[in-house]
Amino acid sequence: MKKTLVLIVLFVLPLVVYLFFASGVTNFGRLPVLSGPVGTLEAFEGGGELQGRITILGFLGSEVDTKKGHAFNLNQKIYKPFYEFRDFQVLMVVRKGAEAQVAELKKELGGFTDLRGWEFVYGELPEIRAFFASLGTDLELDQSGATPYVFIVDKDANLRGRSQDEDEGLKYGFDATSVADLNNKMKDDVKIILAEYRLALKKNQSETR
Asked: Which of 72, 39, 77 is nearest to 189 (CA)?
Protein backbone atom coordinates (compact mmCIF):
# COMPACT_ATOMS: atom_id res chain seq x y z
CA MET A 1 0.00 0.00 0.00
CA LYS A 2 2.82 2.35 0.93
CA LYS A 3 4.67 1.60 -2.30
CA THR A 4 1.52 2.21 -4.32
CA LEU A 5 1.03 5.58 -2.66
CA VAL A 6 4.63 6.53 -3.39
CA LEU A 7 4.23 5.55 -7.02
CA ILE A 8 1.07 7.65 -7.32
CA VAL A 9 2.79 10.67 -5.82
CA LEU A 10 5.88 10.26 -8.01
CA PHE A 11 4.30 9.43 -11.35
CA VAL A 12 0.53 9.82 -11.50
CA LEU A 13 0.14 13.12 -9.65
CA PRO A 14 2.60 15.06 -11.86
CA LEU A 15 0.80 13.71 -14.93
CA VAL A 16 -2.57 14.86 -13.59
CA VAL A 17 -1.17 18.31 -12.81
CA TYR A 18 0.34 18.55 -16.29
CA LEU A 19 -2.92 17.55 -17.98
CA PHE A 20 -4.84 20.06 -15.86
CA PHE A 21 -2.63 22.97 -16.88
CA ALA A 22 -2.38 21.82 -20.48
CA SER A 23 -6.16 21.68 -20.80
CA GLY A 24 -6.38 25.04 -19.07
CA VAL A 25 -4.16 26.65 -21.69
CA THR A 26 -6.07 24.98 -24.50
CA ASN A 27 -9.56 25.77 -23.27
CA PHE A 28 -9.13 29.06 -21.47
CA GLY A 29 -5.90 30.47 -22.90
CA ARG A 30 -7.47 32.81 -25.44
CA LEU A 31 -7.91 36.50 -24.88
CA PRO A 32 -11.31 37.65 -26.19
CA VAL A 33 -11.51 39.70 -29.39
CA LEU A 34 -13.49 42.83 -28.51
CA SER A 35 -13.40 44.61 -31.88
CA GLY A 36 -11.53 44.85 -35.12
CA PRO A 37 -9.74 44.94 -37.26
CA VAL A 38 -8.87 48.46 -36.15
CA GLY A 39 -7.88 51.21 -38.58
CA THR A 40 -4.55 51.37 -40.36
CA LEU A 41 -1.68 53.76 -39.71
CA GLU A 42 -1.40 54.96 -43.31
CA ALA A 43 -2.28 58.55 -42.34
CA PHE A 44 0.54 58.70 -39.79
CA GLU A 45 4.23 59.51 -40.09
CA GLY A 46 6.76 57.15 -38.55
CA GLY A 47 6.25 53.92 -40.43
CA GLY A 48 4.30 52.02 -37.79
CA GLU A 49 2.60 48.71 -38.60
CA LEU A 50 -0.02 46.67 -36.74
CA GLN A 51 -0.45 43.67 -39.02
CA GLY A 52 1.81 40.80 -38.01
CA ARG A 53 2.69 42.38 -34.66
CA ILE A 54 1.50 41.94 -31.10
CA THR A 55 1.07 45.59 -30.19
CA ILE A 56 0.67 47.50 -26.97
CA LEU A 57 -1.03 50.63 -28.29
CA GLY A 58 -1.08 53.98 -26.52
CA PHE A 59 -1.99 57.60 -27.22
CA LEU A 60 0.30 60.32 -25.85
CA GLY A 61 -1.30 63.29 -27.63
CA SER A 62 0.60 66.57 -27.82
CA GLU A 63 1.67 66.92 -24.19
CA VAL A 64 4.16 64.08 -24.03
CA ASP A 65 6.14 65.63 -21.20
CA THR A 66 3.14 65.28 -18.87
CA LYS A 67 2.62 61.65 -19.91
CA LYS A 68 6.12 60.37 -19.17
CA GLY A 69 4.87 58.58 -16.06
CA HIS A 70 2.53 56.52 -18.25
CA ALA A 71 5.42 55.51 -20.49
CA PHE A 72 7.74 54.67 -17.59
CA ASN A 73 5.08 52.49 -15.91
CA LEU A 74 4.40 50.70 -19.18
CA ASN A 75 8.09 50.26 -19.84
CA GLN A 76 8.78 48.66 -16.47
CA LYS A 77 5.71 46.48 -16.07
CA ILE A 78 4.90 45.41 -19.64
CA TYR A 79 7.65 46.21 -22.12
CA LYS A 80 10.70 44.96 -20.24
CA PRO A 81 9.31 41.47 -19.42
CA PHE A 82 8.26 40.84 -23.04
CA TYR A 83 10.34 42.93 -25.47
CA GLU A 84 12.50 39.97 -26.48
CA PHE A 85 9.51 38.09 -27.86
CA ARG A 86 9.38 38.11 -31.63
CA ASP A 87 6.93 40.60 -33.18
CA PHE A 88 6.16 42.30 -29.85
CA GLN A 89 6.05 46.11 -29.84
CA VAL A 90 4.85 49.15 -27.94
CA LEU A 91 3.43 51.72 -30.35
CA MET A 92 2.58 55.25 -29.25
CA VAL A 93 0.40 57.61 -31.28
CA VAL A 94 1.54 61.22 -30.92
CA ARG A 95 0.37 64.53 -32.37
CA LYS A 96 2.61 66.18 -34.92
CA GLY A 97 4.71 68.88 -33.34
CA ALA A 98 5.64 66.80 -30.29
CA GLU A 99 8.66 65.16 -31.90
CA ALA A 100 11.14 66.95 -29.64
CA GLN A 101 9.27 65.78 -26.55
CA VAL A 102 9.35 62.20 -27.86
CA ALA A 103 13.09 62.48 -28.49
CA GLU A 104 13.56 63.51 -24.86
CA LEU A 105 11.34 60.65 -23.65
CA LYS A 106 13.30 58.14 -25.73
CA LYS A 107 16.54 59.53 -24.34
CA GLU A 108 15.31 59.03 -20.78
CA LEU A 109 13.93 55.55 -21.46
CA GLY A 110 17.05 54.57 -23.38
CA GLY A 111 19.19 55.15 -20.31
CA PHE A 112 17.98 51.84 -18.86
CA THR A 113 16.02 50.14 -21.65
CA ASP A 114 16.63 48.54 -25.04
CA LEU A 115 14.23 50.59 -27.19
CA ARG A 116 14.13 48.31 -30.22
CA GLY A 117 10.47 47.49 -29.57
CA TRP A 118 9.27 51.07 -28.97
CA GLU A 119 7.61 52.78 -31.94
CA PHE A 120 6.16 56.29 -32.28
CA VAL A 121 3.86 57.51 -35.06
CA TYR A 122 2.71 61.07 -35.62
CA GLY A 123 -0.55 62.48 -36.93
CA GLU A 124 -2.94 65.39 -36.79
CA LEU A 125 -5.71 65.40 -34.20
CA PRO A 126 -8.57 64.46 -36.60
CA GLU A 127 -6.63 61.42 -37.84
CA ILE A 128 -5.78 60.41 -34.28
CA ARG A 129 -9.41 60.66 -33.22
CA ALA A 130 -10.56 58.64 -36.24
CA PHE A 131 -8.01 55.94 -35.55
CA PHE A 132 -8.93 55.82 -31.86
CA ALA A 133 -12.63 55.53 -32.76
CA SER A 134 -11.83 52.44 -34.85
CA LEU A 135 -10.99 50.61 -31.61
CA GLY A 136 -14.69 50.68 -30.75
CA THR A 137 -14.22 51.30 -27.03
CA ASP A 138 -16.30 53.22 -24.50
CA LEU A 139 -13.28 55.43 -23.72
CA GLU A 140 -12.41 58.92 -24.97
CA LEU A 141 -9.34 60.94 -25.85
CA ASP A 142 -8.68 64.22 -24.09
CA GLN A 143 -8.31 67.54 -25.93
CA SER A 144 -4.65 66.85 -26.72
CA GLY A 145 -5.42 63.46 -28.27
CA ALA A 146 -4.23 61.43 -25.29
CA THR A 147 -5.61 58.80 -22.96
CA PRO A 148 -4.03 57.06 -19.96
CA TYR A 149 -5.36 53.74 -21.28
CA VAL A 150 -3.28 51.36 -23.36
CA PHE A 151 -4.59 48.52 -25.48
CA ILE A 152 -3.60 45.05 -26.68
CA VAL A 153 -3.87 44.63 -30.46
CA ASP A 154 -3.16 41.23 -31.99
CA LYS A 155 -1.40 40.27 -35.23
CA ASP A 156 -4.63 40.62 -37.20
CA ALA A 157 -5.14 44.15 -35.82
CA ASN A 158 -7.98 43.05 -33.57
CA LEU A 159 -8.46 44.64 -30.16
CA ARG A 160 -8.10 42.10 -27.37
CA GLY A 161 -9.30 42.58 -23.81
CA ARG A 162 -11.54 41.18 -21.10
CA SER A 163 -15.19 40.43 -21.69
CA GLN A 164 -15.82 39.46 -18.06
CA ASP A 165 -13.40 41.43 -15.91
CA GLU A 166 -14.11 41.04 -12.21
CA ASP A 167 -14.09 44.81 -11.65
CA GLU A 168 -15.21 46.41 -14.90
CA GLY A 169 -17.07 43.75 -16.84
CA LEU A 170 -16.06 44.66 -20.39
CA LYS A 171 -12.47 45.87 -20.19
CA TYR A 172 -11.09 47.42 -23.38
CA GLY A 173 -7.89 48.96 -22.04
CA PHE A 174 -5.52 49.15 -19.10
CA ASP A 175 -4.78 52.27 -17.08
CA ALA A 176 -1.09 53.15 -17.49
CA THR A 177 -1.28 55.43 -14.44
CA SER A 178 -2.07 52.36 -12.32
CA VAL A 179 0.84 50.04 -11.62
CA ALA A 180 -1.66 47.56 -10.15
CA ASP A 181 -3.74 47.47 -13.36
CA LEU A 182 -0.64 46.91 -15.49
CA ASN A 183 0.98 44.41 -13.16
CA ASN A 184 -2.06 42.43 -12.01
CA LYS A 185 -4.16 42.40 -15.18
CA MET A 186 -2.41 43.56 -18.33
CA LYS A 187 0.71 41.49 -17.73
CA ASP A 188 -1.41 38.35 -17.36
CA ASP A 189 -3.31 39.13 -20.56
CA VAL A 190 -0.11 39.71 -22.52
CA LYS A 191 1.16 36.34 -21.28
CA ILE A 192 -2.07 34.73 -22.52
CA ILE A 193 -1.84 36.18 -26.02
CA LEU A 194 1.84 35.29 -26.33
CA ALA A 195 1.08 31.73 -25.20
CA GLU A 196 -1.77 31.59 -27.70
CA TYR A 197 0.56 32.40 -30.59
CA ARG A 198 3.24 30.01 -29.34
CA LEU A 199 0.71 27.17 -29.21
CA ALA A 200 -0.54 28.02 -32.70
CA LEU A 201 3.04 28.04 -34.00
CA LYS A 202 3.80 24.65 -32.42
CA LYS A 203 0.60 23.22 -33.90
CA ASN A 204 1.47 24.50 -37.37
CA GLN A 205 4.99 23.12 -37.13
CA SER A 206 3.74 19.70 -36.05
CA GLU A 207 1.19 19.61 -38.89
CA THR A 208 3.83 20.39 -41.52
CA ARG A 209 6.17 17.61 -40.41
From this structure: 77
Is there a single domain that holds both residue 62 and residue 3?
no
126-141 core/surface letters (b: 16 or more CB in 10 A; e: else): ebbeebbebbebeeeb
What residues make up the domain containing 175? 33-207
The 3-state DSSP class for residue 118 equals strand
Asked if 49 contacts 87 with a C-beta cutoff of 8 angstroms, the reply is no
Chain centroid to CA 128: 19
Strand bridging mode 33-35 / 54-61: unpaired
Given a contact cutoff of 8 angstroms between Cβ atoms, the answer to whether 74 and 90 are in contact is yes
Give yes or no: residues 106 and 119 share one domain.
yes
Whichever domain contains 154, its CATH number is 3.40.30.10
Task: Work out the number of other CB atoms within 10 angstroms of the CB of residue 175.
Answer: 17
Per-residue pLDDT tens for 135-187? Answer: 999 999 999 999 999 999 999 999 999 999 999 999 999 999 999 999 999 99
- Number of domains forming the structure of the chain: 2
Are the C-beta atoms of 31 and 160 separated by less than 8 Å? yes
